[in-house]
């Protein structure tokens, strides 16, 4: 075979773990590549010109002809262990179709990646891998079969299985097969071997056994990974653990790779080591050992995360999920907001974070966290910042360090506090149409089960603190409010101080709340809270809101009511520290406890009504754990806004905001003899909580940003 780069290479499994890495190496070498895949849309963004993507299914013989046209070299890098059905039958059929079409198309070389193992008592998995190699050779096309053991690399099913066991289990009780010898190989080395076959002088028909520099047991592999992650793990081999029990355990701790890992369990009984080292003479490749392979896998994973722009990696908007999203072994939470500023202007307060500026919210929490870190021998908050305005990569920001910085666009901070894991805080500012999108992302890499416990136990606190930080950054981004000039204006004897949040109890009763957006006066004398004899509950809370007149004219539009509704649902999620969340499906909100399997209240999509002087949004209560069966579809929650006719300052106006629940049948009330006690219990618990939440929401309107007017 010549070393010409003009030969078309067909690559199957290009969307897989090893195939994807081989694709990038082939493209960088300048060779023409054609990818065969069942789902071409998956390859969008993964290939670069002039690489072709052809649709085809190895289980469908008729779909393969076009893909093999003009192909000289064909890589077979697929298996059926993760699919439905008998993987041995599927693998046999796919290999036979591949070999038949390759022979008719005149392919000169087939390259196949199989599995190590020898003897008559091979597991079904390894036996199937060997059978595929024999099937490919029946095509009479020269076939190089590379047989490998465990592949070490982030994303490899075998490596991720080991990782999950170590990260989740303090004590690993394994079958006695855990003492079986294996010869793990780094993913970079296996890709080197696959590329080296293309460089052979002539078509070759051979089986090469390839492996890393170390022969170790599976227990040694587990211990080495734990050592590099600074985790203490003990492995106990016992004959009491059956293959079935092992499959069930792997299905629990490795849900993503569970099907593949379960199929590989029985392969543990077979030694997967190199017995015939002919690959050392055929190729100038010297694979690295186990320790170096794991170290490189972890370093590569860190580098990929460090280069991630979460505005591209995460969906828009970020989904609400308790504890964040899982990316590999890391936990990621993200928040976004839009601001009416250019990216450079929006980035300015973010760049000033920490030090004398503080963290824009809950500074007491950061001081307490710094004190606890100092007591544990950490750096605490003593370091501050080098400069209150300027930042550079490597600078310290309290107990964080700047790891990545793109002026006006991105800042990534790595925590140096003592915690059971590693933590990053990243801010990104992306330009929009006349505004900017600001994203805050926290990434936590837990150190085993202790790190996971730390994350989930403190998640409610972190959820609120980081959310408050984003709101504080928004306030810092805004120019000095023009309302500062109205400090002398009197409204019912109360100065309207738009800057500087204040709360007062007046002699006439009720709470006043002043903030940068408005002044809110709760009206407790007009509250309604009752449970009728029929069992239907009613609750009404009202507040007068004084706001600038330009905002008043926008309140009667549907988008303003939607804004008010979003403010209510968002406030509801924040005030319960994330324990109670709101999930929106097709505009229908559902209040859940922790996760969607415990729906407290499910509402229909809102109905909006707007008139010249009033507007309201109504959600009918459809079902939920808090709703009695006879009350489904009868009650509703309503947010209303109504203009008030009374004297105010020249540039302000007064509106009445009402939160109302009517005809709600609480499950807690019960029926029969329990009804009277249930009504009292409901009024002292669930109803009280609802009133507190509604009043707190009404007060928060003093600080909530109203929607901007539409562009005309």
Summarize the SSE layout with pairings:
Elements: E1 8-12, H1 17-28, E2 33-37, E3 52-55, H2 65-68, E4 71-76, H3 87-105, E5 109-115, H4 124-137, E6 143-148, E7 151-152, H5 157-168, E8 171-174, E9 181-182, E10 185-186, H6 187-198, E11 206-209, E12 216-217, H7 218-228, E13 234-237, H8 243-253, H9 258-264, H10 279-282, H11 290-306, H12 310-313, E14 325-327, E15 330-339, H13 343-351, H14 363-375, E16 396-397, E17 400-406, E18 410-415, E19 421-431, E20 436-446, H15 448-477, E21 490-491, E22 494-495, E23 502-505, E24 511-514, E25 519-522, E26 528-531, E27 537-548, H16 549-552, H17 558-575, E28 580-585, E29 588-593, E30 599-603, E31 607-610, E32 614-623, E33 636-643, E34 652-664, H18 674-684, H19 686-700
Parallel strand pairs: 1-2, 1-4, 2-3, 4-5, 5-6, 6-11, 7-10, 8-13
Antiparallel strand pairs: 9-12, 14-15, 15-20, 16-17, 17-18, 18-19, 19-20, 21-22, 23-24, 24-25, 25-27, 26-27, 27-34, 28-29, 29-30, 30-32, 31-32, 32-33, 33-34
């Amino acid at each position: 075979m010549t070393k010409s780069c003009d030969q078309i290479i067909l690559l199957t499994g290009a969307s897989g773990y090893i195939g994807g890495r081989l694709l990038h190496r082939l493209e960088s070498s300048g060779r023409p590549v054609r990818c065969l895949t069942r789902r071409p849309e998956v390859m969008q963004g993964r290939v670069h010109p002039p690489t072709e993507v052809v649709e085809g299914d190895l289980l469908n013989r008729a779909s393969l002809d076009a893909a093999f046209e003009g192909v000289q070299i064909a890589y077979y890098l697929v298996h059926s262990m993760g699919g439905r059905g008998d993987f041995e039958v599927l693998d046999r059929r796919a290999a036979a179709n591949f070999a038949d079409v390759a022979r008719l198309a005149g392919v000169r070389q087939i390259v196949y990646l199989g599995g190590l193992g020898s003897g008559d008592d091979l597991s079904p998995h390894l036996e199937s891998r060997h059978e595929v190699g024999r099937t490919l050779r029946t095509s009479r096309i020269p076939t190089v079969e590379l047989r490998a053991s465990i592949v070490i690399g982030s994303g490899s099913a075998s490596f991720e299985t080991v990782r999950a066991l170590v990260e989740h289990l303090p004590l690993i009780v394994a079958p006695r097969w855990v003492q079986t010898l294996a010869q793990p190989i780094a993913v970079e080395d296996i890709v080197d071997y696959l590329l080296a076959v293309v460089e052979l002088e002539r078509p070759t028909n051979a089986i090469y056994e390839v492996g890393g520099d170390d022969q170790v047991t599976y227990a040694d592999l587990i211990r080495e990974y734990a050592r590099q992650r600074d985790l203490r793990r003990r492995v106990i081999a016992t004959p009491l653990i059956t293959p079935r029990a092992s499959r069930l355990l792997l299905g629990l701790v490795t849900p993503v790779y569970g099907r593949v890992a379960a199929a590989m369990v029985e392969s543990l009984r077979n030694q997967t080591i190199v017995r015939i080292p002919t690959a050392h003479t055929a190729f100038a490749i010297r694979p690295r050992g186990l320790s170096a392979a794991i170290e490189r896998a972890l370093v590569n994973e860190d580098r990929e995360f460090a280069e991630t722009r979460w505005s591209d990696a995460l969906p828009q908007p970020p989904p609400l999920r308790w504890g964040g999203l899982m990316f590999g072994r890391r936990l990621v939470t993200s928040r976004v907001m839009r601001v009416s500023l250019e990216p450079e202007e929006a980035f300015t307060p973010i760049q000033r974070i920490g030090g004398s500026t503080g963290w824009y919210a809950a500074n007491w929490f950061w001081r307490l966290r710094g004190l606890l870190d100092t007591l544990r021998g950490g750096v605490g908050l003593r370091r501050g910042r080098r400069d209150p305005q300027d930042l550079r990569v490597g600078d310290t920001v309290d107990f964080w360090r700047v790891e990545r910085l793109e002026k006006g666009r991105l800042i990534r901070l790595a925590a140096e506090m003592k915690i059971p894991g590693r933590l990053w805080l990243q801010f990104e500012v992306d330009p929009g149409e006349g505004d900017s999108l600001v994203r805050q992302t926290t990434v936590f890499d837990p150190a085993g089960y202790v790190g996971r416990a730390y994350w989930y136990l403190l998640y409610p606190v972190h959820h609120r603190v980081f959310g408050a930080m984003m709101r504080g950054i928004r306030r810092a981004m805004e120019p000095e409010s023009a309302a500062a000039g109205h400090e002398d204006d009197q409204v019912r004897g109360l100065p309207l101080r738009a800057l500087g949040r204040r709360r007062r109890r007046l002699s006439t009763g009720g709470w006043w709340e002043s903030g940068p957006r408005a002044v809110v006066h709760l009206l407790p004398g007009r509250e309604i809270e009752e449970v009728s004899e029929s069992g239907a509950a009613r609750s009404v809370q009202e507040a007068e809101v004084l706001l600038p007149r330009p905002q008043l004219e926008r309140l009667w539009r549907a988008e303003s009511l939607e804004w008010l509704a979003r403010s209510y649902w968002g406030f509801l999620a924040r005030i319960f520290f994330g324990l109670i969340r709101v999930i929106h499906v097709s505009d229908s909100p559902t209040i859940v406890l922790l996760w969607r399997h415990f729906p407290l209240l499910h509402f229909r999509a809102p109905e909006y009504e707007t008139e010249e002087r009033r507007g309201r949004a109504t959600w009918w209560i459809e079902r939920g754990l808090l709703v009695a069966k006879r009350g489904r579809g009868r009650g509703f929650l309503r947010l209303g806004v109504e203009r008030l006719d009374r004297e105010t300052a020249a540039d302000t106006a007064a509106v009445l905001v009402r939160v109302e629940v009517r005809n709600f049948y609480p499950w807690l009330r019960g029926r029969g003899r329990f009804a009277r006690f249930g009504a009292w219990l409901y009024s002292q618990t669930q109803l009280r909580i609802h009133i507190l939440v509604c009043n707190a929401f009404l007060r928060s309107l003093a600080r909530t940003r109203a929607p901007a007017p539409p562009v005309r």
